[in-house]
Design goal:
The protein is α/β, with parallel strands linked by helices and about 575 residues long. It folds into two domains: about 5-190, Ferritin (Up-down Bundle); about 290-565, 3-Layer(aba) Sandwich (Rossmann fold). It contains 15 helices and 14 strands. It has helices at about 5-10, 10-45, 50-105, 130-170, 175-185, 200-205, 210-220, 220-225, 230-255, 280-305, 355-375, 405-425, 440-450, 500-510, 555-565; strands at about 105-110, 115, 265-270, 275, 315-320, 325-330, 340-345, 380-390, 430-435, 455-460, 480-485, 520, 525, 535. An eight-stranded mixed beta sheet has the order 5-6-8-7-9-10-11-14, with helices on both faces. It has a two-stranded antiparallel ribbon with strand order 1-2. The chain has a two-stranded antiparallel ribbon with strand order 3-4. Strand 9 (about 430-435), helix 13 and strand 10 form a beta-alpha-beta unit.
């Protein structure tokens, strides 16, 4: 598709053709009604019997089915023509808008898309000091419009070509074929059910024109924004709608809470202590929950609105809702186009309200990966995704001592990782899953029970990954990495299973006599940095606390970046 073709396209002719085809389809339907009344009904009321009558009735019945199938197929042609008009009209409008803006800004657009301008400040046609920036933006809009038209052309051509083939070889007269074609056309107008395989979702999305995709985003942002298999750019658009609506809703609820009630009643209990006001308790719980979610919303907004520069890559909101403690999935750099992609799964305490600090971790990990690439003379790009797409435990006891949270997250994480491959432009060069604390248990369970399509697994400060050996994570154990500082309290997450307790006692006994081998079990399996686990142990600051692995001077952070970049 080129500028002149799209600009001069007579899209009204498509609408006219659609109207003409509707007239044809209506006339065809009237002929079917006449056939039913003048032939079928009269024949059924006749007293014609015998072998010939039986053959005739059978053929007439078959012919009636074929006519109804043909009517369905004609209707599908009309729907395709309408979608063609909508798609091409939108693309043409976007092109004309870009060309008009170019003209207003004194930029000259050539037929091949090249843009020139007068650079003489004394000329009446001087385009201004920011002409180059404006030209780049116009160029991007023109390219997007042409791509939009190409996409519409391909999708509509495929649909019309299929229907034309059916008409040419007679398969369109088959009721099963007509039903399948109708179901396929209806599916284009319906969001796939939750849990649909990401590859099927991507195929559905690709079958829509850009205009149909826009309508889906506007009409169903909550579904599109959180569906694996939808490209990152489109999920981001949908989730920014969800984010704005949630901001308004949460603020409305906060405003509706009214003033804070008195904390205590004017009475004392049997021990003489003041009795807490039930109204205050209810108010406080709602207020704290809403405030926490608002903090998360504002943190996401702040990062999305940060000006993109060398130290602040673009961000994409790949998932968002306020259900429960709230969920958010935020990518630093576009995972669909980055050479290397890493998913970071935080642990206990992860929720919408805490997303700001987790996004910061993705930022510093991308910077670390960029530095690793720079040192290697590699221009590859890296995306780090903060995945708070599950209900994480919110406290150490009792929630983090319960593996139900990890089990409930397995299918969600598997679907998300499969979705990254479905939407990526080509094959992901180096794919990493990186987790912290209870997040390593969540990742470990998913890898153990289902397998994840990743190249590397990085387990930071793990209370156990649900397995006793790295090989049980279903990837090459040479690409499993672990880090745990001696000062990290996670080492106190004692084993609760009998075998783990027994192994720990035996190893402690051997250590007392000078021949212990460092084997140790934690709450959810063997310590990931124990030699027997079989992971590559990363360097750590020996004084690092549980959340210090992302500090600026952390050797672990350097290693994380190298692994993500494929340079470790």
């Amino acid at each position: 598709m080129d500028i002149k073709t799209l600009h001069d396209a007579d899209v009204i002719s498509i609408s006219t053709a659609k109207s003409a085809f509707d007239t044809l389809a209506t006339a065809f339907g009237q002929h079917i009604e006449s056939w039913q009344h003048d032939v079928v009904d009269r024949l059924s009321h006749s007293e014609w019997t015998g072998t010939a009558a039986g053959h005739a009735n059978t053929r007439i019945s078959t012919l009636g089915t074929e006519l109804q199938s043909a009517k369905q197929e004609l209707g599908l042609v009309s729907r395709a023509l309408q979608d063609a008009y909508d798609g091409f009209a939108a693309a043409q409008a976007h092109l004309i808008s870009a060309l008009d803006d170019a003209k207003n800004q004194k930029l000259t657009v050539a037929d091949d898309g090249g843009i020139t301008w007068d650079k003489d400040p004394n000329s009446p046609n001087f385009a201004g000091k920011d002409a180059e920036t404006q030209a780049q933006q116009i160029q991007a809009r023109i390219t997007a419009a042409l791509n939009e038209a190409d996409h519409a052309d391909q999708t509509i051509n495929s649909r019309l070509g299929h229907l034309a083939t059916n008409a040419g070889n007679g398969t369109g007269l088959d009721s099963a074929t007509a039903k399948a074609d109708t179901d396929a056309a209806n599916a284009l107008e319906q969001v796939p059910a939750a849990g649909t395989d990401p590859n099927s979702v991507k195929a559905w999305w690709n079958g829509l024109t850009d205009e149909q995709q826009r309508r889906m985003i506007l009409n169903h942002p909550d579904q599109i924004g959180n569906m694996d298999g939808i490209p990152a750019v489109d999920r981001n658009q949908a989730n920014q709608i969800n984010l704005q609506r949630a901001h308004q809703d949460i603020q409305h609820q906060l405003d509706g809470l009214g003033p804070e009630p008195n904390q205590f009643l004017n009475v004392a209990d049997s021990n003489g202590f003041p009795v807490e006001n039930p109204d205050y308790t209810t108010w406080k719980q709602k207020h704290d929950d809403l405030t926490d979610k608002m903090n998360g919303i504002k943190a996401i907004e702040a990062r999305l609105n940060t000006k993109v520069d060398a130290t602040h890559p673009p961000t994409f909101l790949l998932g968002f809702d306020t259900n429960g403690h709230g969920h958010a999935i935020v990518a630093v750099n576009n995972p669909d186009t980055a050479n290397n992609v890493s998913t970071y799964v935080p642990g206990t305490g992860a929720r919408l309200g805490s997303i700001g600090s987790d996004i910061n971790r993705s930022d510093v990990m991308v910077a670390s990966a960029n530095n690793a690439n720079k040192q290697a003379g590699d221009k590859s790009t890296t995306s780090s995704i903060t995945w708070v797409g599950y209900d994480a435990p919110q406290n150490i006891i009792p929630e983090a001592a319960d593996d139900t949270y990890a089990k409930n997250a397995e299918d969600k994480l598997v679907s998300f990782e499969n979705g990254l491959h479905a939407t990526h432009d080509g094959k992901i060069g180096n794919n990493t899953i990186l987790a912290h604390s209870y997040g390593t248990t969540t990742v470990g369970y998913a890898m153990r029970d289902h397998g994840l399509p990743v190249d590397n697994a990085v387990l930071i400060a793990s209370p156990g990954a649900g397995v006793d050996n790295a090989k049980d994570l279903r990837i090459d154990p040479n690409h499993v990495y672990a880090a745990q500082s001696p000062a990290d309290a996670i080492g106190w997450a004692a084993a609760t299973d009998p075998s783990g307790l027994g192994d720990n006692l035996w190893d402690n006994l051997k250590t007392d006599f000078g021949f212990g081998d460092g084997d140790h079990h934690l709450m959810y399996g063997r310590q990931t940095t124990a030699p027997q686990f079989g992971a590559n142990v990363l360097p750590v600051d020996p004084n690092a606390g549980h959340s210090d692995y992302w500090n600026a001077d952390s050797p672990t952070l350097v290693s994380m970046g190298q692994i993500m970049a494929g340079k470790y």
